[in-house]
Each structure stands twice: as C-alpha cells, then as structure tokens.
C-alpha cells in the first residue's frame, strides 16, 4: 500500500494503457450486445507480453469504461448497452426524450466516476474484511435478495401493479426455458433446439428495449429526441450542480454498488436496480422517478460503476470472481503465473496495489474521456437523420445479438421478443418487469433450491429461510419497499367518512 | 515410347506431389478456440494456459471465446455446423458430452463430436475449510454414518462430475450425504468457505487455488498429486475411486483426417512441453494424453463407466 506502488502505476506506459482501455471500453460498452466480458476475452492475449500489473491495469480500464459506456445507449436509445445499465433507461430515456439527453450523459459520467472511485478505494483499503461479505451471503440470502429486486416491480409500475406483476411473472417463466443451470433439467423447450440455450439476458434486453424504439421511430413522424434549437455542449456545470445536490444519493448508491459487487453472481444489473429502488424509496419526489428524474441516473450509474472495484474484492482476496469480466481477469493472472486467493495480497502485494492504483487512475481518466465521448455520442444520435439512424441501430442489434454466442437462434428470439414487447406496450405492459423477472428468476430459483436442500438436510427449514440475520434485514427492506407505495397512496386519498 | 513413359511418370509424380501439398493440412491465420461455458472455470483456465504456448510454437494467435448455454449443449450442438478447415476448435468436457445426450435430445450425440485430444483432467477431491472438524476422510465418513443426510456437500451442477463422484463415494463408503448443486465450481467453493455446506466435492484445482484456506481429505488419482504430497488418494484409504472431469478439444466433423491429425499433433506438442506441464500442475490440474488415434477406445471406456454410474444413480433411464 506504500506510495511506491502509486508511482509504479503512474508510468507513462501504464497511463497510456489506462486511457486506451477506458476509451476502448466506453465505445464497446455503448454498443448493445458487445459486453465488457467479450472485450476482455478478445484482448487478454495482448496482455501476455506485458508485466502483470500493466496487464491488469489495461483489463481493469476496459472493464470500467465498458460499464460506463452502457449508459449512452440506455439514455439515448432506451437500450442498455450492457445489462448493468438497465435501470439507467428508467429515467435516462425520458430525460433524453424531453431534450435533456446531454445533461443525462454528463450526469452519468460524474456518477460513474464517483461510484468507480468509491469501489476502487474500498478495494484499496478494505478488501480483506469486505471479502467476508461474499462468504456471509448464502443461498437463502441470494433468494431474498432477488425477491427484494422483484419487489421493485411494485414501485416501478406506477399505478399498474397487476400489469407489472404479470410482466415479472412472465419474465421468470422465460428464465426457466432451456437447460436449468443447476438441476440440468431441460425445460419448456417443446423439443426444439432453438430454445435449448434459453433466453439470454443480453438478447432479451436488446429485443425488449431497442426493437420497440425502432418500430416507434419508423411509425411516427417525430424526431427521435426533442432538441433545443442549437445543440449545446454537454451541460457539464449544470450536471455537476445536480450531482452535488444529491451527494447522499451518490454515496449511498456507491456503497450499495460496492457491496452488491462483492457478491459473486449478483453483478452490476442487480446493483443498479437495488440502488435505484433505494433512491426512489427515500427520495422526496417518488412520483418523478421513471419520468426523467436525475436522481435515478445518479443512483444506477454510481452503483454499477462501484461494482467494478467491489467485484475485484472477492476475485483478488478469495480467488472467486465477482462477475464474468472478473473471471477473465483471474484467468489472465493465472497465465501470468500470479497466484490469486488468500495468499495473493501478501505474496504478490506489489502487483495488486499497482493494479488498484491503476484502476483509480483509469477511473479519473474516465471523467474527461467520458464527457468527450458522451458529447460526441449525443450529438451524433441527435443530428443523424432518422433514415440513417434506424437502419444503423437495427443492424447493430442483429450483429450484437449474434455476437454473444454466434447463434442465429438468439437473433430470432431477440426479434420475436422485440415485436412482442412493442405489441404489449400498446396495452400498458412495460419491458422492465419482464427483464427483471428474467434476470432475478434464476438467482431466486437457485437460492431457493439450495436453501431448501440444506435446510431439509439439517431439519431446519424455518430457521434457514427466516432465522438468519442478513436474510431478516433483506426481508425488512423488501416489506418497506412493498408497503410504502400502498401507504402513500392511502395517505394521499381524501379520507371520507362512511 | 520411353520418352512418353517418362513424361507420364513425371506428370504422375507432379500430380501426386501437388495432391500431397493440398492434403497436408496447415493453419492459416488466427485460430478460434470456443469454450462452451462462461469464463473463469477450469475449461477456460486450461485454454488460457495453452494460448501463449500455441502462439509460441505455431506462430498464430489462438483466440479464446465463450459460447455458454445449456451447460455446454448450445456450443456442442453448433459445432458440426462450423467450418471444418481447422481454423475453429471447441473445448469438450467429460462427463458432460456423455451424460447430457443420454438424458434428453440436446441437439448433439456423443459420437457426433470429433474429439481429437484429451489433454488433462481435474481429479475429484473432497475439500473442507482449514478450520473444519474433519481432519481426515475417516472423520467425515464417521459423521456421515452417525448423522445420515446431515453432511451437506456443495458441488458444481447436477449429473456432473462432482455429483457422480458424490454418488459413487456414498456407495463405496456406505454413507448418506446431501449433495447441494451450485452453478460452477466458484459458487460451490464460495458456499464451502462461507460455511453454507460442511464440505465440497471439488477438484484438486480448488486446493491449488485456495491454498491454506482449505484442506483436501482425499484425491481420486492413482498416485498422489505432485502439488499435494500430503493428501492421500481414495485408493490408499480403501475406496476404489479414480477420475474426475476430463477436458479435451474437438473439431467440426467435416474436418479432414489430415486436419484432425495436425491438431492432435499440435496439442500433443504443447502437452509435452515441460513449461506447460509445470503451469498445469501448479494450477492443480493432472495431465492426460489421449490423441486422435487412441480416442475411440478411451471414449468407449468412459461412456460405459459414466452411463453405468448415472443409470445406477437414477440420473438417466
């Protein structure tokens, strides 16, 4: 942790790597279908010839950039560029629609840098104790965490609770299609090979979010996004003021993101959703969330960026990757001959600390790089004529979906879901509950099956599901999230005497 | 007349050489190495270890990509639709490619896969935390006998190598333990370290990665693993159990015999490199050399063994 590691991270070569990584990551992350995992997997061989610390800095910078880049498409096209940016669409796209897209992009950049710094500093100072969080979370805690995530449906679907729940249930059913992750059963494929891989989250995201936007673009004469007379530069100082006003939201969401990032198997999408739900629950204007509330973007973007540093905590301390990109970094380290796991901080301390400082440098570099790229992205989306925008984005959705696992089935599923999503939107069903069900369904299922198996084996089912302190805390948060909207609605109603 | 004869001979020789040059296979440009799982697992790590050696020996890049889904089935079902020119290869795993098609139609059959080399395996091992009350295998067996069903053991997946090992050991030891399937070895180890389960059915790679945090009670090898000279084999302790998860590489079945042979030789060359072997052993893997010529017999023996185990365990009909 000495200062010397900071200096070894600061070599011109490492800084250049960090800058390159952030820019490349941001661009890749902004394209739906091209994920951080894919970018890292392709670039790992380049790092073989580097020393381990530089290799890690490059990979960490790409990862950080990609998570931020996911926000562009979320804000400007209503399509999460990476799954982490799902909740960014909730308020980002409404903001862009009303002409505040530039403000939203700048806000996302500030929030991402802040969240990324919190995650990286936690990794620097608190990694060994925080890694215990990963171990404290058992199957039952994951089960309750996913139920908590699903409770967000209640607060997401303003006034449309039944439709929201129906969407969530439908998403959960979709998540069971194909070969089950842990029981290896083949379910709901109706004998078809197309369905055996199930509904991939990234493909479903592209279909359910992006295709309806494209159909609407073609079907209506209006411009894609409302713009002021002349496109101003990204509203940096305005965004900075808003971010400063919401400093509690920033800090809380970053801490949530760091903690969720530590949990293997949860990841940036869950972090963004949990932070969003907390921001909405505690915010002054609950109703404004979902209609272009800047606090929504601040919460999700700071949280998902914080998962980068948070995810490296179990990766480096326990040798257990927090997210798929972490797993690739772990593999790259092994090839370099660096042993991860309990002994890493003591045996390879200089590599670890040089890497952590490198991650911090990359996060700082994201501020100028992110604002510049964001400005360019916003300008091009706003000024490109529809006749060019629609085919370009349409082409990208197909390439992006195919690239996930070179599967034509995925493209077919994506397109069908897209048309389906557009149709049900006519009847007031939103895409988000379906995607929530799709992401959280498997986590809930696995946690439940494992918790039940262990509880039944030790004759302690009730204690297993309700007796553990962390579970009880999550259950309490879930109840608060569920009851608050009902209570508020009750209070708002004029009380009539019977 | 003679002249004509010579001319013919020359023409024949020329044709033969040009035919030979077409037939002798070679790689042109980067090779696509598909792992039909997500990153971070044993399949990924061993491919990543091969990557620099391939570039070093054969001058071309080996690009590792992931195509997860259906527990590997999505990748394997698509393999034979890919180009068999030798530029694309795919990782294959045992028992997966034997058990999955036996359970249901998953879009491929075991015999469809043109597996040309099995290059390593991860021996089964029982892993406990460093502070576990089980000092040795006898402690665990005694507890499992005294409290039937209460000894919970995490593992990766169902009808998987870990699961089959648990079933087999229960039968050999006359115990009843509870197997808790997790998504991948990483999650199963997390559950062990977090004390969600009292033991884990894992591999020697878990012991290599976790170091002092865990203790292995026994490994399913013929001889002890060089990295763990103090950990006994199951055989030493009286349980006739060797094996684990085997990993190899396959080509699309449209690949020519020459291409298959070329690949088998290339992977064999990497496998015999002492530097590669050291990296593998340090990671807890165990080396294995089954080339394309010996694959048929090897697979036949494994198919018989796995299907018998799985049938007895009620995992397949």
Structure report:
The complex is a heterodimer of chains A (498) and B (317). Chain A is mostly helical and 498 residues long. Chain A has one domain. Chain A contains 20 helices and 2 strands. Chain A has helices spanning 3-9, 12-30, 36-43, 52-77, 88-136, 139-156, 161-175, 201-219, 236-245, 247-262, 267-282, 294-318, 324-335, 344-347, 349-383, 386-405, 408-425, 431-457, 461-466, 469-492; strands at 178-179, 186-187. In chain A, a hairpin with a 6-residue loop joins β1 (178-179) and β2. Chain A starts with a helix and ends in a 6-residue tail after the last helix. The model of chain A has no long low-confidence stretch (mean pLDDT 87). Chain B is of the alpha/beta class. Chain B has 2 domains: 30-121 and 244-312, 3-Layer(aba) Sandwich (D-Maltodextrin-Binding Protein, domain 2); 123-219, Periplasmic binding protein-like II (D-Maltodextrin-Binding Protein, domain 2, 3-Layer(aba) Sandwich), CATH 3.40.190. Chain B is built from 11 helices and 10 strands. Chain B has helices spanning 2-23, 42-58, 73-79, 96-103, 137-146, 161-173, 184-193, 204-210, 257-272, 274-282, 295-312, and strands at residues 31-35, 62-66, 88-94, 114-129, 152-156, 178-182, 199-203, 214-219, 244-251, 286-290. In chain B, strands 1, 2, 3, 4, 5, 6, 7, 8, 9 and 10 form a 10-stranded mixed sheet that branches. In chain B, β1, α2 and β2 (62-66) form a beta-alpha-beta unit. Chain B is globular. The model of chain B is unreliable at 16-23 (pLDDT under 50). The chains are: A mainly alpha (498), B alpha/beta (317). At the A-B interface, α3, α5, β1, α13 and α18 of A face α2, β2, α3, β6 and α7 of B.
